[in-house]
Each structure stands twice: as C-alpha cells, then as structure tokens.
Design a protein that fits this description.
By secondary structure, this protein is an alpha+beta fold. The chain is 31% helix and 27% strand. It has helices at residues 10-25, 34-50, 63-66, 95-100, 145-156, 174-182, 194-200, 217-230, 243-251, 262-265, and strands spanning 55-60, 76-77, 84-93, 106-113, 125-131, 164-168, 186-190, 210-216, 233-238, 260-261, 272-277, 288-290, 293-302, 307-315. Helix 1 (10-25) runs antiparallel to helix 2 (34-50) and helix 7 packs parallel to helix 8. The longest helix has 17 residues, at 34-50.
C-alpha cells in the first residue's frame, strides 16, 4: 500500500509557524536578551503547532544546548489527529545575532513522517559537511578538507581559489580554516546560523560552495531536512565534547565513528522545511515594521513535490 504523503497545505501551515516565531522574536532584536527572544518564539511556535490537525512529536529541540525554554524532546503537539509526524524545531537559530542586532537570525522548523528523523539524544554537537546538487556523491567527511575541496572543485569545474567555504567562527576551527586557506579556497566565517550556511550551498547564486566544521546537532538535522528537499548532500558525525560524553554515548548505543548522511538524519523524502528571517541575512530579509503592519520573508521546501517557495507576507494589526 502506498504511504500517504504529508498534506500539501502543511507547507503553508509551517510557514505560519515560523512567521509567528519570527514576529514575536523581532521586538527583542538588539536588546541583548537571548532568553527573552527564545521564550517568545517558543511560545508562538507552540501555539500555532498545537492548532494543526496532526499528531506531532518533537524529535529535535534546542533548549539543552542554549539553556533555553525549549520545545522539549518528546513533547506532543497538534490536535492528536492524523498524520503522525516528527518535528525538528529551532525557534531562534542565531540567538546571539538576534540579541546583538546582527544578521542571520532565523526561525526554522522541519517536519517528516513519524519515525523518520534521527534523534541525537543528549549529544549537542556534530561535525558537518554540506554541498549543493552539483556535488552530490563527491564529498566524504572522513577525508581531509583539502581532498574534499579538490573533489568539489572538479565537480563544479571551478578553480580551488574560486571556492567559498562557510565555517562557524569558533576557536575549534583554527586548524580547519588553516587547511582551507592552504589549498587556496576562501573562507566565509559566520558567527552563528549554520542551518542557513548549509542551505546556501544549494541555493542558486548564493556564492557559497560548501559548509564545513563542527556545529549543533539540532541544526545538523534541520540542515539535512532542507538539503534533502533541495537535492543537496549533507554528511555528519556525532562530536563528543569530552571523554565523559563519549563514554555516555557508547553506553546509550551511539557510534561516534558513524557517518550520518542526510538519508540517515531524515529517512523520508516527504520532508517539509520552513525558515523565516528575524534579522536580515544572505537570503532572507528580517521582520520589517511599517506602522501597525509587519512583513516577513520565508522560504519553504517540500521534498516530495520538489518545490521551493519564497513567501512574503504582510501582517496587519488585529
């Protein structure tokens, strides 16, 4: 029997979810209040999700890493009716940019049929590499940065010096950045927001060819959902922060040597990803106020229909 796909109207329902989170977080932009922004976005996201005709379970929440008021792992959302779905949520991806009034803060969510999303458990970091459709099948996270960049260069028919690599600006990436620059590629350091960093690799005209480095596991699953719909490729490996975390992982049955592809992180192509800008970024514009009205800019990707929509909405005062 053919498995029923997620309803097409869920694309727009998830846009409503991320719009609500972005709108409620936007008053906190530049106010140096990460927790306040996150709390507002969580409450708004939860409210809209609970109005949806579905039986949803949060597989990926964000609170443990950020010490934020999360939509907690295992939380049940929706009216309790069919379909049964997994949810990956990040009400504010880029809490620091939001708090500091910087670029690249977004609200984002992904949905897939129940049982198809990878649960990273308590392990909050993941080593990642992400590329767009032209480079599917040429990357290998277990190879060096130089080897991967040479393969990407060949696949894109670009010189190494033309490649642009997105990397989170963290002390742990000093050696990685050195390796990238040694082969002649360019590095674009970002302060936060590697979900959108991965997304950019598959977005035409973005100027970004690959994302590399260690970032959050929740963001890794969200990025995999987006790239699954965009036709790109994502690979990740769980990244223990210390020996104690490695020991706990082994006790819980996690394999820190396993290479997780986007097919492992979300095993169904029937995945929907939505993101709405809170502050301006490389693709998404942030929330803009004009009197009593506000406008939002969103992107929604539906893997099963191979559709990507940009949604600009004007929200009038109620």
């Amino acid at each position: 029997m053919k498995k029923e796909r997620l309803p097409h109207h869920f694309e727009f329902d998830l846009v409503r979810v991320t719009e609500a989170a972005a709108l409620t977080a936007s008053p906190f932009v530049g106010r140096d209040d990460k927790k306040g922004a996150d709390q507002a976005a969580v409450d708004a996201m939860r409210r809209v999700l609970n109005s949806m005709e579905m039986s949803g379970v949060v597989v990926i929440g964000e609170g443990e890493k950020d010490e934020a008021p999360m939509l907690f792992n295992g939380e049940k959302l929706g009216t309790g009716s069919l379909p049964e779905v997994d949810l990956a949520v990040d009400p504010v991806d880029g809490t620091t940019p939001c708090a500091k009034g910087r670029e690249n803060s977004i609200a984002t969510i992904a949905m897939a049929p129940r049982g198809t999303m990878y649960d990273p458990g308590p392990f909050v970091y993941m080593n990642k590499i992400a590329v767009g459709p032209e480079c599917v099948g040429v990357i290998d996270i277990e190879k060096s940065a130089a080897d991967n960049l040479k393969a990407i260069s060949k696949a894109l028919d670009k010189e190494l010096k033309e490649l642009v690599v997105v990397v989170l600006d963290r002390p742990r990436h000093e050696e990685l950045v050195s390796q990238i620059r040694k082969v002649g590629a360019r590095v674009r350091l970002i302060l936060d927001g590697d979900v959108m960093g991965a997304f950019l690799t598959a977005w035409p005209g973005s100027g970004v060819d690959v994302l590399m480095g260690v970032g959050g596991s929740p963001e890794g699953v969200l990025a995999a959902c987006a790239l699954r719909g965009l036709g790109g490729e994502f690979q990740g490996k769980p990244y223990p922060r210390n020996e104690d975390e490695k020991r706990r992982g082994h006790e819980l049955g996690y394999d820190f040597n396993a290479v997780l592809t986007h097919h492992d992180l979300v095993s169904s192509n029937d995945v929907i990803f939505s993101a709405t800008g809170i502050t301006d970024g490389a693709i998404l514009q942030g929330v803009e106020q004009a009197g009593d009205a506000a406008s939002t800019h969103s992107i929604v990707v539906h893997g099963a229909s191979s559709k990507v929509r940009e949604v600009i909405t004007t929200h009038l005062a109620e």
